[in-house]
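For the sake of transparency, this paper describes our internal protein records without simplification. The record that follows is passed on verbatim for readers who wish to inspect the format:
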Amino acid sequence: MTFRAFTQTHLYTKQGSPKEKDKSSIQCLEYCDRNVYVGTKDSVVQHLTLASTTSGDLRRSQDRIKECRVRKLGSSRPVMQLRAQSVFNHLLVLWDHSVIALNMFSLEPITGMKTIQHVSSFEICKPSLAAESLLTGVEMVTSSSRRKLVRIHLVRVDRWEVMKEISVPQDPVALAVDGTSLCVATDNRYLLCDYKAGSSMELFPHDHNRQNVVVCSAGRGEFLLNGPGSLGMFVMKTGICQRPPLPWPEEVLAVGVCFPYTVALQPRALSVYSMLDQRLKQTVCLNGARGLCSASGDVLVFTDRDIFSLSLVPLEEQIQALVGQRREQEALSMLNGVQSQLQPESYKELHKAISCLAGLAQFNQEAFSEARDLFIEGDLDPREIINLYPDKSFLSDGFNPQLGRPAQARDLEVLREEDSTTFHRYLDFLGDFLAAVRGTEQGLKCSEEVDCALLKVYVERGDTEHIVQLVASPNACRLDYCVPVLEQHRRFFTVGMLYQSHGQQINAIKTWVKIADGLYHDTSCPDVYEHIVWTLSQLDDRDVVWMFADWALVKNPEAAVKIFTKHNPQDHDTSYTEDILSLLKKYPMALQMYLEFLINDLNSEEERHHSLLAKAYVTQALQEESDAGAMREKLQNLLWESVFYNISAVYEQIEPTPLYMEKAILLGRVGDHSLALKVLIHEEKDRCAAEDYCHRAAQNQNQGEGEGELKQTLLLTLLGLYLTSEDLTGAAVDLLNNNARVFPLETVFKLLPGSWSVQLVSRFLRSSLRETFHQRSMGGLQKGLSRAELFRHKTQASKTMVLVDKGQLCKVCQRELTQSFCSIRGELVHTGCTNSTVI
């Protein structure tokens, strides 16, 4: 099917006798509004008008053109150019190397506008529409036929005047003007001038002998030139080319611009090129064509006797025609190029529709990246693409596909069976496209279908990472479809996550329990039990927690206790805590760990919790296990540091056991240190433990009693117990030697038996005396330092400026302060009186 940018209409045939046909042939043409002006070879200017019902649409003008006035200019010289200037109703005519001005409607000469002679060509500077009503003149450019220059004229309603002359290096052959920019063709090259700024620039050369010189304004500061090598060159007024050249034929007679097309006239045809992609779009046969005249949306082409109109097909129709010919990319390119010419709503709708069709074409050619971008640009309903794939049972019944399947499109269901590799490429595209639109306005229109299709794609691709990301986050997957799909592919752990994301916690955990119990086999989660425990620890629904807590405790009590210890601490109210303790009675280690959590993490001060933990430690410490020592250490620390447990209840449990150190700690907690030391000496038989007990008990001193005093008392008690038995003499000596600084020498002498020699306690005596002397020396030194500090303060006080009234007396001697003085505690005294100060 042939694409048409313009429609051709025969507009007019010039009548004449056979003998005069050659003399009266059409030489030039001008079109303005509904007025057509014809210049002939025999010096005639003819005015034609289109019927008012045509509204300037030349496609409907056949048989509706009216011949108006005719004016004979003089001798049989051809009319070379016609230019209508509607601001002042002038028709400017180039005839006999002169420019004359006629009235557009009467074709009568304008009084006062003298003929401009020696002109080879001219052009009018077209003002902007917004400024026409304010104009006092229109600029016109003429090229001289005798001199190497171009003149700028100001055309007024009844006169014109030369404003400026621009010299050129060679005779000007043709010219075009756009605003203040002027492009001139000389004998062998093209020139650019700005007649306001006075700047000029040489462009590329041309071969005037081998090709027609063409200079045409393309609008917006751009010119179209017939360049070397039969190339149509677009040149900006800055001298640069922003468009690729047009590869048109050699025999170009004339060119015109009718955006978005450029038309190039040849003797037998007119070629239509796109300014957007520089490609030939249409060829119109026109035998004997001589020239053309382009206007907004229309091109008039004339032969010797006939005038044809080429009317631009509405842009929307052209774009739709390209789409109908499966040239979607070309249609999209054209649409974007003519966006400024279309209504915003029309452009938006066309862009969406064409983008989708172009995307489908790219999709069928496996150009997936381009297809995805086009589908997103076209805001395509994702269900249209999902519908192209097999297994679309999750699509809603109310969906009616609007995107037709092209005849050459592949059947993906057949492709899946016959070429799995290619099918997986299509599958990857679906996943990428749906992931790109998911969460956007485009994807939210059908979020259920998007998420179901995505899950299906990820499962078929075996993409575990993306499956987990999808089901772990909020999603719109339909459970009745997605759960069977996941189960079919043995993705049981993911089934649980899907249930969980939809708020069905019980179904989620039940599914995971079956994996942990071996009823389901799924290796995607290596430790599903830990995941269940973590999930239960995060739940606020206590009923669900209780439903599965016992199962978890039976399987692994120590791990399962995290259900409660990792839970929000604010949820551990009294009743909840008691329920947990009741549940954990069957699991001693879990109970112990939970009690440690209550005391160490939640800082519980309840007596029951501390007592239960102490009893739990006792039970564990009595078991013959490798960690019994560590358990006893925990128990001892609790007994030393806690003040909340029931001492009697714990002692009752420990009393019949060999936990002597713990028994001693409890005796010490009730103040019976002597009995505690006896237990350590006679039952535990550990002298080091007894000595350590004294130090530790002193650290945990009772209120009102200093640590040093209590330590001294306890060590003296221990010394007394050692001295009651001759077998413990060595222990007594070691105790004295290890704590010489603590024991008071006088008290020790009173306790020591008379049978002990000085040599036996010589080490103790030396250490004790050395400590005594050291303390005395340190006391003296401290006293000296205190005096020095006091003197420093006094000296600083003496240097302080004090306001003294005349006749003020010293506080000590009561004499007038005429000598040096200082301030002591705010009172002024003579410096010599400071030693006797009693203030």
Summary: The chain has a mean pLDDT of 87. The first strand starts at residue 6 and ends at 13. DSSP finds 29 helices and 29 strands in the chain.
